[in-house]
Amino acid sequence: MIYLAIPYTHEDPAVMDARAAVADRCTALLTRIGYEVYSPISSWHHIAKKYELPTDYAYWKRLNDNILSICDRLWVIKLDGWEKSKGLQHEIETAKGLCLEIIYEDYDGGEYDE
Fold first, then answer.
1. Total structural domains within the chain
2. Which of 6, 18, 65, 105 could serve as a FRET partner for 73 with CA atoms 20 to 30 Å apart?
3. What pLDDT is recorded for position 61?
4. What would you report as the CA-atom Rg of the chain, rounded to the nearest whole angstrom?
């Protein structure tokens, strides 16, 4: 199973919404072509917004670490800010510690659109 990781937390809620949309598109594409995918952002963004849950990685760290521990690989979507994202860097380090395959993918916006 793939754990899909992208940068998420941002001071601008519109940026977070846009990042969640990218996560949704990537999750849909990978699922459509036959992969099993878990995207924490696709799974929780709308719930966190609706029920005013925290959006920082520290709040979601335990859940994400547990899910990552049952995955085969980490798929990193390199959106702006990915190298500075604390949560994403934690996911990469956790995946390395678990000896998971890590795939880094540029996102140009086109190939994942419906």
1. 1
2. 18
3. 95
4. 13
Q: What is the mean pLDDT of each run of 10 residues along the chain (114 residues)?
A: 96 94 96 97 96 93 96 96 95 98 86 43
Q: Is 61 inside any structural domain?
A: yes
* Domain around 64: 2-74+85-106
User: Six-digit token pair at 68?
Assistant: 């990552």
Let me know if residue 80 belongs to a domain: no
Q: Is residue 114 part of a domain?
A: no
Q: Is 1 helix (H, G, I), strand (E, B) or coil?
A: coil
Place of tokens 């899909």: 4
pLDDT the model gives residue 110: 53
CATH of the domain at 44: 3.40.50.10400
91 assigned to some structural domain: yes
Nearest 5°: phi and psi at 99? Answer: 60, 35
| Interatomic CA distance for residues 61 and 64, integer angstroms | 5
- Running DSSP on this structure, what letter comes out for residue 83? T
